[in-house]
Amino acid sequence: MKIFFPKESDKETRSALDLASAQRLIDLGIEVSFESGVTQKIDIADQDLEDIGCKNKSRSEGLSNSEIISSVNHLPLSDLDSVSEKTLTISFLDVFNEKEFLEKLKQKKITSISMELIPRITRAQKMDALSSQANLAGYSAVMLASSEMNKAMPMMMTAAGTISPARVFVIGVGVAGLQAMATAKRLGARVEAFDTRPAVEEQVKSLGARFIKIDIGETEETDQGYAKELTEKQLELQREGMKKVCGYSDIVITTAQVFGKPAPRILSEDMISSMQPGSVIVDMAVTTGGNVEGSVLGETVEKNGVKIIGHENLPGYVPEHSTQVYASNIYNLIEEFWDQDAKKLELDESDEILKSCIVTKDGNYISEILRS
Ligand code: NAD
Q: How far apart are CA 259 and CA 245, in angstroms?
């Protein structure tokens, strides 16, 4: 079997391949090929890949002549003309927003796996790219915020006086939020957090942070642990309850997401204007509509002296490590369904993982999420 790794777009720093995962794929008996420059931004040269036995191929040859094509972001639409029927593509697919792309995959009878749709079950944890990337995004959010802030993070007792620790407020304590809290704690900040899922309180406390309690009435979560949408009235209560905390925080990191839906609007203009000049907000939900009023995708904007960071692709700030874990997620997925005797992938659509993450196959939509 042949797997091809095309080069990502100019603005992507991550890759789906690194040396360790390439070696492990080769050890399974797979022919690994790549487009020149695919790992350039993580400082792995073409020659390094060739030295362990990978093949350097042109994009058109790799696309048209491989059984598997793997990348971080899905291919540009025009590339699909070069991909043969039954080829398997593995990447993030942004299935709720890329209807035209999905239609073309279906029409061309290309098999596609969306890494966002790997289910949150124990057996699939090693393939869970949403988690592996969200973890590093949470880390990057704190590093970015601390470099934009005009204060230091830890408490310092010096002969010239005592510097108080920075105050960090994390809203949304999923994978990204937990890592943001842990990173801010390691840097010495005083950390507080809020989430609509009450079960999170224990996790917040175990990181040595304070959970902010706000009574917003009954909240629900899905069987995969995702939060369900709040009513407008509940969001209003939440904003009211958080206003004071935002007012004294130096950094506010918002990570609130509702799976498959636009992000809830959590920080209003009114709350931002109550914050101290020099403080920083990171809107980690900016790509799904944003938690923060006035945040701009891909930019840092300033309102009343408060910086609002809306950078997309936060894991891309640490591309070596985000590649390491993503490439490992891809390897683990392939290895899980690899038939060692037949030396090929066996994609049984009734498998609990595959029935969630296969998007198109043989001209049909497969994923339960798209059908529901
Ligand atoms: P996510 O990115 O979908 O959302 C981030 C957080 O925002 C969640 O904690 C959510 O509760 C919270 N949120 C939603 N609306 C909010 C609001 N109005 N105010 C404040 N917070 C709000 O979450 P995620 O990081 O992908 O994790 C989702 C769940 O899946 C979590 O329970 C996590 O522990 C679980 N999970 C399970 C596994 C596994 O078992 N394999 C792996 C990863 C995550």
A: 26
**Contact partners, residue 30, CB within 8 Å, separation at least 6:** 1, 2, 3, 68, 334
Residue for token pair 């890329």: 98
Q: Which fold has domain 2-117+318-363?
A: Rossmann fold (3.40.50)
* Rounded Cα–Cα distance for residues 78 and 159 (Å): 64
Element (H, E) at 63: helix 59-64
Q: What is the pLDDT of residues 302-353, one digit of tens each?
A: 999 999 999 999 999 999 999 999 999 999 999 999 999 999 999 999 999 9
CA of residue 260 to ligand 1 center, whole Å: 12
The 3 state secondary structure assigned to 205-232 is HHCCCEECCCCCCCCCECCCCCECCCCH
d(CA 136, CA 326): 11
Contact indicator for 214, 242 with CB cutoff of 8 Å? yes
Kindly list the distances between the CA atom of residue 343 and the CA atoms of 4, 5, 73, 281, 348, in Å, as whole numbers in the listed order.
Answer: 17, 19, 27, 50, 15
Element (H, E) at 222: none
Ligand 1 pocket, 264 CB below 6 A?
yes
Q: Which helix (H) or strand (E) holds 240?
A: helix 232-248
The burial of 118, by beta-carbon neighbours within 10 Å (0-12 exposed, 13-18 middle, 19 or more buried), is given as buried
Tokens at 47, concatenated? 């020659």
Name the nearest CA neighbour of 358 among 342, 339, 337: 337
Q: Kindly list the domain boundaries of the chain, sorted by start residue.
A: 2-117+318-363, 134-317
On the question of a common fold for 2-117+318-363 and 134-317, the answer reads yes
Which residues lie closer than 8 Å to 341 by C-beta, 6 or more apart?
A: none
CATH 3.40.50.720: does it fit domain 134-317? yes
> Model confidence over 237-291: pLDDT tens digits?
989 999 999 999 999 999 998 888 899 999 999 999 999 999 999 999 999 999 9
115, 226, 283: residue to mutate for ligand 1 pocket, most atoms within 8 A of CB: 226
- What tokens were used for 168? 């960090």
Q: Using CA atoms, how far apart are residues 122 and 353, in angstroms rounded to an integer?
A: 10
Whole-prediction pTM: 0.94
Mutate to test the pocket of ligand 1, among 125, 196, 204 (most ligand atoms within 8 A of CB): 196
